[in-house]
Design brief:
The complex is a heterodimer.
Chain A lengths: L1 H27 L26 E6 L6 H14 L5 E8 L11 H8 L3 E7 L2 H6 L6 E5 L5 E5 L12 H12 L21
Parallel strand pairs in A: 1-2, 2-3
Antiparallel strand pairs in A: 1-4, 4-5
Helix pairs in contact in A: 2-5
Chain B lengths: L11 H43 L2 E4 L2 E4 L1 H23 L4 H21 L8 H10 L8 H18 L2 H4 L8 H64 L3 E5 L5 E4 L1 H7 L3 H4 L4 H5 L2 H17 L9 E6 L5 E12 L4 E9 L1 H84 L5 H28 L8 E3 L1 H18 L3 E5 L7 E3 L1 H18 L4 E11 L2 E10 L6 H6 L9 H7 L5 H11 L3 E7 L3 E9 L4 H8 L1
Parallel strand pairs in B: 9-11
Antiparallel strand pairs in B: 1-2, 3-4, 3-7, 5-6, 6-7, 8-10, 11-12, 12-14, 13-14
């Protein structure tokens, strides 16, 4: 009788543990809200687009840990692609937070990437201009300002590694074409629901 | 031998080895369970710390909340860790515990992969965990761990390959490749486990053998100690000296009796040369030669036999001993045991015995000579006795015949003197009456004397016979009182008889009984004046028979003790003046005493000078014919 109880408890324990892991798995594979991007470079943006090469923009929440993987993947893209785009990483800086709040380890990581310009996006003005709502949202514009790619460059929340966004970006930079031009974005929301 | 499976015919060593192996195995399982319990708790805490450090918050614009990784680390990590940790603490050593721990460890690896953002390096946790599980030295525990890893990879490979393979698209069979790598490690761990188990078995067997060896040695040591203690006890209580000597003749052991005998302490004696220590100078060389002869040639001329020698004490005193030296074969070397007995006392006793024997023999000779002389004397005595008896008989016969011959003329004298008195009175010749009375009185006295002598003679000659008949004591006493009354009244005495009426009839010689009492009353009347004479009669028991006691008490002159002692001898009165003063023959009490003897009675006298006398006569109430016949014979 005691053995039956032990087996029952063991079964419940195993099922609970597996269920917990499954919930975690589901959460990490749940994408954020897609961006409302426009097909052309927003004219109201203060960012300077270059005319001789593509421009890559990644919008990030400075405190989102999931974005750490996106920055890592950005480094992969920039490292692997033969064409070096003009790259901006914009970090959200809500006005209610103190100055420097945005200069997290992500800021320092982004700043350490070659050919990357880190920009503070006060109150997410630029993010709104580009229609981004999820941290890790990446957009690639060609030299003429046409949108080539919009989406995330990680396979899931916070998980670096091979993913469709990275592959597509490299293909677009190197060959100008890709099977996919948009992917899901995994990361924190750049804006709260009320702001949305 | 298989330490895990023991046949019923396995030896005790094999069973012990199996037991030790199982104990060691259980100990390892328990320790490893507890180790994993700690590791589980540690991993849980580290997961929480890691989550708090790496991804504490999830943001939504300007608002933040606790990151799901933190909750996962707390809840899922706790869920995975606590149950096996509890089992590891509460059910350490039970197989199911380590299987649960194996599964939990792999699930913890899956959780850590999530918490680290799918870092491929976290996969090392799987391999590390497998190695850690090998601590159990139970290859079976690797099976559930491997199954969990394989299942995890298979499921993730289907739904989320990037999290385990690092690529977006992977073959559905790629989990097999990962599982194969895990199995690859499992093979090494399996080999390591089996080797470790083999070493544990070997260690258990060696430990069992060592224990057995130690136990055997301990038992042997205990046996040896017991035997030594027993031997020491025997030597300690031995009354004889027991001295062990080594090959060089040095004392190796010296028991308490030897200490007492020779005056050396054991510590002092051990190491001394035996011959120098206990033998006088003149005996040393022969003893030394005897021991040397045995050691060199095996000659045992002086060994194995009891010898009486002289020995010397520490004080220099020489004394006789009985000694026996016997060789002892030991594993170490040749030794000798000397058994020595101090025979000083025995020698002294022997000397005294010899003296006594000589004296006894001389005494015996003297005694023999005395006996011979005694025999000769006895012979002479017998002859003398025979002659005396013959003389006595002749005397008695002479007296009897003489008495008879004397009484006849004496009766005639008495009778004629009486007749002459009557004639003289009738004729008025009063002057001759006094002389005639004296003749008659002298004749009567002479007749009385002759009768007494005759009675005494008869008794001594053994011719006095008892005439046994039944009579009443009261009647006899009446008659006796009548007879003795003139004598009593002559000296103005009073006579009282008490107790005669209650006496049962007596079977005996009434004549001699009356004679006894008559003699006693006559004496009492004669030696008492103006006094009282009492006869107390009562039944009594004496010499084991029923008797009648006659006590004649007077208030007369009495006697001294010396006089009383001789009063029953014939021809004896209290003193020489008595005869002159009171008259009598001196035969009355002698006859009384002999009549009492003849009737197996007794007579006693109690008297004090001037206060009277008391004669107590006890006679059997019934005199049997046998008694009278025997006495008469």
């Amino acid at each position: 009788m005691r053995a039956v109880w032990l087996w029952a408890i063991g079964g419940v324990w195993l099922a609970s543990a597996v269920a917990g892991l499954w919930v975690l798995l589901v959460y990490e594979n749940k994408p954020g809200e897609n961006a409302h991007t426009k097909a052309h470079w927003p004219t109201e943006s203060r960012l300077a687009r270059v005319a001789d090469r593509p421009t890559l923009i990644l919008l990030a929440h400075p405190q989102c840990t999931c974005t750490r993987a996106s920055l890592a993947e950005l480094g992969e893209v920039l490292g692997r692609a033969h064409t070096q785009p003009k790259t901006y990483v914009l970090f959200l800086k809500p006005s209610q937070f103190f100055d420097g709040w945005e200069q997290s380890d992500l800021w320092r990581t982004a700043a350490s990437l070659p050919h990357v310009t880190v920009v503070r996006d006060d109150d997410g003005v630029e993010a709104e201009r580009f229609g981004a709502v999820t941290s890790g949202q990446t957009m690639l514009y060609d030299a003429k300002g046409e949108l080539l790619f919009s989406g995330g460059i990680t396979g899931s929340r916070g998980h670096a590694g091979d993913n469709a966004g990275r592959t597509s970006l490299i293909a677009l930079l190197d060959h100008g074409t890709s099977l996919r031009r948009s992917t899901s974005v995994f990361g924190c929301s750049l804006f709260s629901r009320a702001e949305s | 031998m298989s330490s895990e499976h023991i046949t019923p015919h396995a030896s005790s060593a094999e069973r012990r080895a199996c037991q030790l192996f199982k104990e060691a195995q259980l100990d390892i399982h328990r320790r490893t369970d507890r180790l994993f319990a700690g590791l589980m708790a540690f991993q849980w805490l580290m997961g929480i710390v890691f989550a708090l450090w790496v991804s504490p918050l999830a943001w939504e614009g300007t608002t933040s909340r606790t990151h799901i990784h933190v909750w996962a680390a707390i809840i899922v990590g706790g869920l995975i860790s606590l149950f096996p940790a509890l089992l590891g603490l509460l059910r350490a050593g039970v197989p199911s515990t380590r299987y649960v721990i194996a599964v939990a460890q792999m699930l913890m690896g899956a959780l850590l992969i999530h918490l680290t953002g799918g870092r491929i390096e976290t996969h090392f946790h799987v391999f590390g965990s497998l190695a850690f599980l090998a601590f159990y030295r139970d290859w079976r525990v690797l099976i559930p761990a491997t199954v969990v890893v394989a299942a995890d990879h298979m499921v993730r490979g289907v739904f989320w390959p990037q999290s385990v393979y690092g690529v977006v698209v992977a073959s559905q069979w790629r989990w097999l490749e990962h599982a194969a790598w895990v199995l690859f490690e499992d093979v090494f761990l399996l080999v390591a486990c089996r080797r470790s188990i083999a070493e544990m078995k070997h260690t258990a067997e060696r430990t069992a053998a060592l224990e057995r060896e130690v136990r055997t040695r301990q038992e042997a040591e205990i046996d040896a100690r017991s035997a030594r203690a027993r031997n020491d006890a025997i030597l300690d209580v031995a009354l004889d000296c027991v001295i062990l000597i080594d090959e060089q003749g040095r004392i190796a052991q010296f028991n308490p009796a030897a200490e007492r005998t020779f005056g050396y302490g054991a510590d002092e004696a051990v190491g001394l040369d035996l011959v120098d220590a206990i033998f006088p100078v003149e005996r040393r060389q022969p003893m030394r030669e005897a021991l040397s002869a045995y050691l060199s040639t095996g000659d045992t001329a002086l060994l194995n036999q009891r010898l009486e020698l002289t020995a010397v004490r520490k004080s220099g005193e020489v004394f006789p001993v009985e000694i026996a030296i016997a060789p002892i074969s030991t594993d170490a070397a040749k030794m000798f045991a000397a058994y020595v007995r101090d025979i000083t006392e025995r020698k002294r006793i022997e000397r005294e015995l010899a003296t006594y024997t000589t004296d006894l023999e001389a005494a015996h000779e003297t005694q023999r000579q005395d006996a011979e002389q005694l025999t000769a004397l006895v012979k002479e005595l017998r002859v003398t006795q025979q002659r005396a008896e013959e003389a006595t008989r002749a005397k008695s016969e002479f007296l009897a015949s003489m008495s008879h011959e004397l009484r006849t003329p004496l009766n005639a004298i008495i009778l004629y003197s009486e007749l002459l008195q009557e004639v003289a009175q009738d004729e008025g010749n009063t002057s001759s009456i006094g002389d005639l009375q004296r003749i008659q009185s002298a004749g009567k006295h002479l007749l009385e004397l002759i009768n007494g002598i005759l009675d005494l003679s008869k008794i001594e000659a053994g011719k006095m016979m008892l005439s046994v008949e039944t009579f009443t004591v009261e009647a006899m006493m009446h008659e006796l009182v009548d007879t003795v009354r003139p004598l009593v009244e002559k000296n103005r005495n009073t006579l009282t008889v008490r107790g005669a009426s209650s006496i049962p009839p007596m079977v005996g010689d009434v004549t001699k009984t009356r004679q006894i009492l008559l003699n006693l009353l006559s004496n009492a009347s004669k030696f008492t004046k103006d006094g009282t004479i009492t006869v107390d009669v009562r039944t009594c028991a004496f010499n084991g028979v029923e008797g009648i006691e006659f006590a004649v008490t007077d208030t007369g002159v009495g006697m001294t003790a010396e006089q009383a002692r001789k009063v029953f001898d014939p021809f004896t009165q209290a003193d020489v003046t008595t005869t002159r003063k009171y008259g009598g023959t001196g035969l009355g009490l002698a006859i009384v005493a002999r009549f009492c003897d003849l009737m197996r009675g007794t007579i006693e006298v109690e008297s004090r000078p001037g206060q009277g006398s008391r004669f107590i006569v006890r006679l059997p109430r019934v005199i049997t014919d046998a008694a009278s016949t025997s006495e008469a014979a």
